[in-house]
Amino acid sequence: MADQSIVSALILGLIEGLTEFIPVSSTAHVVLAGHFLGFESPGNAFAVLVQLGAILAILAVYAAKLIQIAVTLPSSPRSRRFVFSILLAFLPAAVIGALAHGFIKSVLFETPALICVVLIVGGVILYAIDKLPLAPRYRDAMDYPPSLAFKIGLCQCLAMIPGTSRSGATIAGALLMGTDKRSAAEFSFFLAMPTMVGAFALDLYKNRDALSSDDVLLIAVGFAAAFVSGLFVVRSLLDFVSRRGFAPFAFWRIAIGTLGLIALWLYG
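Structure tokens predicted for Undecaprenyl-diphosphatase:
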């Protein structure tokens, strides 16, 4: 049973890293896969805690740019505005996530059918937005004004509903507000850093008494898998989005949501 749990943790970690930064909802994939694998985690802590691997993956890929921003922060108004915009965009999710944490984890995360429906609905919306003849006004994430960043942060709050996708909500909102596809995805990357660190810290604190030494091993396995698969996605996503847009992810969401509902109906 222990070996089976480790294999499940490895699979779930790979799924986390592969889906965290694309608009398909990593939480939905990890929760649904865990449900059908029979993988149990106190308060669904595993689904959030393995995100640390994905966080480190994006930090590794963007290390040079982050260092450049930090070095130029005292002298560059552009760097200061960008950091302020990211923190401003993070604020709504931080407040709502802290206040509604119990309801989100105990009710929404425990409803696989709801997650499947949200995947399908979100896929339809993402496809529709991807096909709109939008005229981008912003093509560099570093130049987003704070007001735009805050609105994107409000969109991110929709991801409190499992299946919505944090990156999907932020990217879709950004596109509708005048950004191009590549910069929308990159801004979502940067916004993921404080958001995921905050979610990780909150879940670790909330589940500190429920986690055992066995859970630590499973989380470590999931973390390593999420780091490796996350590196691959972060390094390739921007070029993919520039060429193909977001329609492939929309079709994937609809397919997974539909298969999930069928599997729930057949197997419970």
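The radius of gyration is 18 Å.
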